[in-house]
Amino acid sequence: MSGSPFTVSSGGNLAANGSGQTADLVGKFRILNGKPPRTGQTCAQTDLSCHYFDPSIFAAPLITSPANAHYGNTYRNEFRGPGYFNMNLSILRNFQLTERFNLQVRADIFGLTNTPHFANPNLTCPGSATTPGPVAGSGALCNTGSNNNFGVITGTASPGGFFGPDPGNRTTWLGQS
To answer: CB 110: neighbour CB atoms within 10 A?
Structure first.
């Protein structure tokens, strides 16, 4: 299944209450499908093997005064997060005991592949919206600053399943009737 949509947000004073700022796209968007770091580990900005997308292509919109305040050039829900995969299996067998009675033995396995569902990456651009960046008309690039998790997946998702939230782990039911 496809992943959920996401918006890359950014800092910057728009002077518009209730309005969120989006980042500027200053390069070609490309998905890297990096592996999330293990619990307790961090991902360096230069290590693209743990980023879901290339973080160097986003920048904060350059806002130097209230007169030039503007939204970033990306849209709400423009990008898609990591997709997820699920496979279930049911096996059953009927045993004829007598003419009138039979016994059914059943095994149901949900999440057969035991594949986790990853959440969207961290999407808040930590770049300063008042510092000119290397790309004309943009603020500082989003892969700079103290937030070293921009573009990195740090959690799992539990999309809705038939029996409620589905974290992707394997569940086995055995039954008979």
So the answer is: 19
